[in-house]
Every structure is written in C-alpha cells, then in structure tokens.
Design goal:
Blueprint: H1 3-22, H2 27-40, E1 45-48, E2 54-57, E3 62-64, E4 75-80, E5 86-88, E6 94-98, H3 103-108, H4 114-126, H5 133-141, E7 154-156, E8 160-164, E9 167-179, E10 182-189, H6 190-202, E11 209-214, H7 216-222
Helix pairs in contact: 4-6
Amino acid sequence: MTDEEIGRLNKKFREIEKRIVEGAINFDATIKALQEIIIEGRVTQFTPVTNGFAEIKMKKGFINLGVVPNTNERYTIKDHEVGNRVISLDMNNIVLVPLTMTKDEEKNNQLYDMGRCTKFIDKKMQALPALNANYLDHLLLYPELIPEDWRYKTILFPKTSYTEKKESWCKSFRALRVMSGNWDDRYINIFRLVHEIVDNQERKNEIELHVAIEKDLILHFGE
C-alpha cells in the first residue's frame, strides 16, 4: 500500500468511529461487516439515506437484528424484540403456524368479547418463537427468497408491534402478503385480526393467517 492509500484508509476508519459515536450506524453490525471483509472476503454494502445518516444494507441472506424496522408516516413502533446481532437467514428454518382459535379457546375467551379475545390472540402469538419485522423487511428487499407456497397466505411477524399515531391505544402488526401481484406489507390492527380469524373459521375457509416462526427455537421453547 502507498502512503496515500494508508491515509485514505485511516480517514475512513475515523469516519466510521465518528458515525458510531453519533449513533448513525450500529456498532455490532459494523464489526460484523469488517469481519466479513477481513476474514471471509465478503463485502457488506453501505448505502446513504436522508438527513445525513447512513445505514448498513445487508447482502441477501444476512439480517441485522440490531436495526429499527421500517414503518410509515401513519404508524409508530410500540414494541420490538431486538436481536443486536447479524444472522444468516435460512429459509428452510422458517415455518408458518396457522393462527386459529380452537372451540375451547372460543368458549373460554367469549368469542364476541373483543377486548378479551384480542388479549388472548396477542398472548398466543407472543408465546410462539415468532420472528420480528427485521425479517419482514429483508424479505421485502429480496422477495426472491420467499417460498412460492407463501403466496396465498397472510404472514405475521408479531415480535414487532405498531400503533397508529392517531390511535395509540390500538396495537397493530405488519404482515407479508401479495397485493396487486407483488409482495408487500400490510398493517393489521388486533381487532381486525380477531375478526379475520373468526370469519375464516365460521366460513370454514382455508386458513390465510399465519405466524412466521423459527423452527430451531421450537424445541428450546418447549423445554
């Protein structure tokens, strides 16, 4: 390396340090990216965003669980299960669990008592080894990773919840589904979610609502 190249490299390291201190980029994700370059020969892509901040855009198949998931101008994040690590995505390790209520669950939770039902459904989803919206964001970025048999399903990632800014009392979740022929996300509030579960069961429709979970966590969860 020439003296000029060493100077340019040191300048970039100082810029990275400054960005980490400012909170513009995540420390753990930066270390992971540098490790990939130094040891594994892979390059994680950095892309600029608005307001002078930078984000780490992970290559296909790598998810940074330490970043804040996407939202829009109408919603804000209520709860989010943070991972603080970069993971290698294995779609074979993700399975879908139908979101239903058994007859006993309907009876015990008074099906038409919406307040009681919404709490029950939320608790049922949170008890699963479910995924957060970081996974959803990555699948929207790389839709070619999504299995074909997901196409006619609505898939929830309930470890991240949202509220409407004008109705902060009502919890919502983002779901992955096909709209107008393309994969997109949809916000579903908990009341609408219960209505769709009941409607599917009363009409005996094919179950559309599913929760995305990590298969390797099922045994651990059951221990």
